[in-house]
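dumping this here before i forget
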Amino acid sequence: MKNYYLFHSKTKFQPKQIKDIIAENYRDDFTFEMIEINQGFIIADEKLFDILETLIPLINQDLGIGLTILVSHQNHRLANHVLRFLIQKGVSTCRYLGDVLMERLMDGDSQFNLFVIDEFKNIPREIILTASMFIHCGLNAIKTANKLYIHRNTFNYRLHKFIALTGLDIRDYRHALYFELASRLLKTK
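structure:
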């Protein structure tokens, strides 16, 4: 599954330097795009996170650029708002969207809640219920199908539809955490 690694640096840097550092340490294909002079995104799988978690402190120390990276399932409004929040707080590291949202909610900060709810407003109710039950059943497909009284193929169809509509593969723990937070917010709305 591909993730978006949205990045921002405090100072101007040479994109080729960062791209080359990543290419030396991450052997799979990735997309590297600059949006502005100090902002862009990388599209790669989840393996890049572990590499960046180690590289970011070294890059920031050696190049002095204050690089902040937010990992999300999409390059959307919520992710960009959370990235700006991290930048304002002076966070120079690599973080997952769900982890940041969990911390904000635990601190009583609800500034991102409407963005989260808005992301799922056009998803059919049965698709949301199926995805929520999948989380509730510990990502166990058979248990989920049984709890919903549907055939396993129907469950698979709904799960794949959820992934296609949201870009959020909840079979991955980090994405499941994000959707668990989102589904709780959807219930309170």
